[in-house]
Amino acid sequence: MAAGRSASAAIMILGVGTDLLDIRRIERTLERFAGRFLERVFTLQEQARCEGHINRCARYAQRYAAKEACAKALGTGFRQGVAWRDIEVVVLPSGKPLIRLQAGALARLAAMTPAGMVAKLDVSLTDEYPLAHAIVLIWAESATAQPRAIP
Known about the structure:
The protein has about 150 residues and is an alpha+beta fold. The protein has a single domain, classed as CATH 3.90.470.20. Helices cover about 35% and strands about 30% of the residues. It is built from four helices and five strands. It has helices spanning about 25-40, 45-50, 55-75, 105-110, and strands spanning about 10-20, 85-90, 95-100, 115-130, 130-140. The strands form two sheets. A three-stranded antiparallel beta sheet has the order 1-5-4. Helix 1 (about 25-40) packs across helix 3. The radius of gyration is 17 Å and the shape is elongated. The model has no long low-confidence stretch (mean pLDDT about 90). Keywords: Cytoplasm, Fatty acid biosynthesis, Fatty acid metabolism, Lipid biosynthesis, Lipid metabolism, Magnesium, Metal-binding, Transferase. Its cofactor is Mg(2+).
């Protein structure tokens, strides 16, 4: 049972996706098609976060892998109304990455979430040159689940 959840909370895995990407592929793509590629795949916030990082290509590769993994977890890939920019990787001040969905990706999440449940997404990102990896877990819990106090 997850910490902070009551014993009666119903939890269900809705989807899992993973992606492994060669960072050098992103390096080559950025050299050849930087503007078009970035505009098609990444939100302005993602671009600002990656451009400000010393390992810019690795950060883009992590986000690209996260978007691929999320599309797999949604069960559609980039079809059925799910687009690259519908999936955004944001980072909390603590450094924890989160996925924010909008448009077609958000509609797909709503369609796959059982009635009476609330969907949650978790993402893990890593890289070790020349590889970047992401895993996305989509899960749902009962909308009436009450957190319990942790002693």
